[in-house]
Amino acid sequence: xxxxxxxxxxxxxxxxxxxxxxxxxxxxxxxxxxxxxxxxxxxxxxxxxxxxxxxxxxxxxxxxxxxxxxxxxxxxxxxxxxxxxxxxxxxxxxxxxxxxxxxxxxxxxxxxxxxxxxxxxxxxxxxxxxxxxxxxxxxxxxxxxxxxxxxxxxxxxxxxxxxxxxxxxxxxxxxxxxxxxxxxxxxxxxxxxxxxxxxxxxxxxxxxxxxxxxxxxxxxxxxxxxxxxxxxxxxxxxxxxxxxxxxxxxxxxxxxxxxxxxxxxxxxxxxxxxxxxxxxxxxxxxxxxxxxxxxxxxxxxx
Length: 302
Prior knowledge:
By secondary structure, the chain is α/β, with parallel strands linked by helices. The protein has a single domain, classed as Luciferase-like domain (TIM Barrel), CATH 3.20.20. It is 41% helix and 16% strand. The protein contains nine helices and eleven strands. It has an eight-stranded parallel barrel, surrounded by five helices. β9, α7 and β10 form a beta-alpha-beta unit. α3 crosses α5. The longest helix is centred in the last third of the chain and has 23 residues.
């Protein structure tokens, strides 16, 4: 497991908010914070994407702002914000607000949006995939300028700004780190240009990777090629991946999960948080195994 050439490994929990009461959601984020995980994540959906669809789900960005004040050190984000839900200038203002509320712990995750049923039910436009990528590309230009506290004038196909400035400037400089979910060739090229963190995950039916034919190793190779074409050193871009809760069932499974994905070059490793009855095992992994992995990586780097 070679890590010396790239950034240090970070460990995260994909918590989500589907079906949770507010106290249950707070409990999970506070647990992740106390156990020393590096980041924890909500989803950005207006309804559950898996049946039953009538389960409750809190809105992501307002939830994130509140959770930022209830945690101390863990990085927070939405995996990932749907660009179809918000104008990028509004998202920039939301992001800088959460960055200040958290003391500079926000990661700004964004993607094209992918779930048509929620757009239909909630009356939101859902363009064809090529246009959604076009919209995201423009949105990233806007977010990059506004995220630095710079005046932004943008006369594009989808967005128009005239001297907008998202003040106050963020706590994080030069801007809040941007995570881009990208699984297909054109999106990988977009991530190679704009992402501070590139995110992908295995092909799973009923998710944003449905229909993606390439495996993770092929996507890594395509991303590295895209970085070279964009004139970026791919090792300067963090790479995140998430899976279900299975690796948190025991220490051996988690160690295998880390070794497998670190060997592919992923730096930010996330698993879903399992049910509460397995939290004692999660605590063991967080307090015993993860520090050992960090120490071994530091020795290798030295």
